[in-house]
Amino acid sequence: MSAQGGRTVGRGAVSPRGYAVLRAGRASVLLHRRSAVVALGLLVALAGTVVASLCLGESAVSPVEVVKVVLGQPSPHELVVGEFRLPRVVVGLLVGTALGLAGALIQTVARNPLASPDVVGVTWGATATVVGLMAYGVVGSTGQAPYAAVAGGLVAGLLVYALAWRRGLHAQRFVLIGIGISVALSSLTSVFLTKGDGFQAQAAKVWMTGSLNGAGYDQAGWLAWVLLAAVPVVLWAARAQRTISFDDATAVGLGLRLDRIRLGMALLGIVLASCAAGAAGPVDFVALMAPQIALRLVRSAQVPLFCSALTGALVVVLADLIARRLMAPTELPVGVVTGMVGAPYLMWLLILPRTPFGGTPIRRGGS
């Protein structure tokens, strides 16, 4: 038996067109078919990119030997793959995942494809804090200040959210205030760079571009725990996405607490972006690109969180591979490659029609 816009499943349950209902006992999950196919394709592409990143370098290693090292089997390439390349790839995976999720959450809250941690001041808050601490000699290197980067990003993100609040969160004000805060923090960072000595300034500039050079399991460990702890909140956010897609009047009429939902999603995005900056520095444009790429692949009504996370991980690992091999033996920071790709992408977004996610125009009464 069919239903308008969908089909009947089981005892009167209707699944929307393009969705399938998965049942496990009394529990049921609504699965978007295209999202599942895209996620599978992204996983395959990500696995291939990881293997290529572990194989390629100053000394090439066969995929068979790479698999042996990853599985913990004896291999003559254990030092090169297991000690030098694998930790870097793991950090890249985690940083990309965090940035992809952060960008998707903030773009959903702001209902604007230009909103991302890079644009609304989160990464500049982390940058200004770390560079300032180095300039005043509180820390000796960027490797000693991951928690300072997290704190700076959190303060900047919450400041933007607070300033954008006027009896509710207004999307346009959120983005514009974020841009203003970013410009101010960028200027402050420049002041700190001129205050510190030359060695500190050079180290800070490399970190400011976003770099996985020298990244290890110390950064990967705590970032993995943050992502693991965020899983329940991400699941809640994926469900809450459907409620905040309504305009304010409709949502309030349905009894939804939009302000709390938006605050929770924005806070999660700010935390994830700040932690990513603390692990690898501010890797620009990943949080901006990944959600929109995933959205165009999936063609769903909301930004797909899981596919955005996979896309972010794929972008960072692939960009790091290009950064290592583009000017070998010199290894470029990964942020150089993402910036080269992200800047034209940002200009392309600016010339598109004013739509939040490639579809429905922003309503005047919405947020």
The profile of the biggest β sheet is:
3 strands, antiparallel
SSE topology string: EEEEEHHHHHHHHHHHHH
Judging from the principal axes of the Cα atoms, what is the shape?
A: globular
Q: Strand share of the residues?
A: 5-15%
Outline the low-pLDDT stretches: 1-5, 354-367
User: Which structural class should the secondary elements be placed in?
Assistant: mainly alpha
What does this structure look like?
The protein has 13 helices and 5 strands. By secondary structure, the chain is mainly α. Strands 1-2-3 form a 3-stranded antiparallel β-sheet, with no helix packed on it. A two-stranded antiparallel sheet has the order 4-5. A hairpin with a 2-residue loop joins β1 and β2 (about 5-10). α3 (about 80-110) packs antiparallel against α10 and α3 packs across α11. It is globular, with a radius of gyration of 21 Å. It starts with a strand and ends in a 16-residue tail after the last helix.
Quick rundown:
This protein is mainly α. Helix content is 66%, strand content 6%. It has helices spanning 33-55, 63-70, 78-110, 122-135, 146-163, 171-195, 198-208, 217-244, 248-253, 258-280, 286-298, 305-326, 334-351; strands at 2-3, 6-9, 13-16, 19-24, 27-32.
Relevant terms:
mainly alpha; 367 residues; three-stranded antiparallel sheet; disordered N terminus; two-stranded antiparallel sheet; 6% strand; 13 helices; 66% helix; disordered C terminus; 5 strands
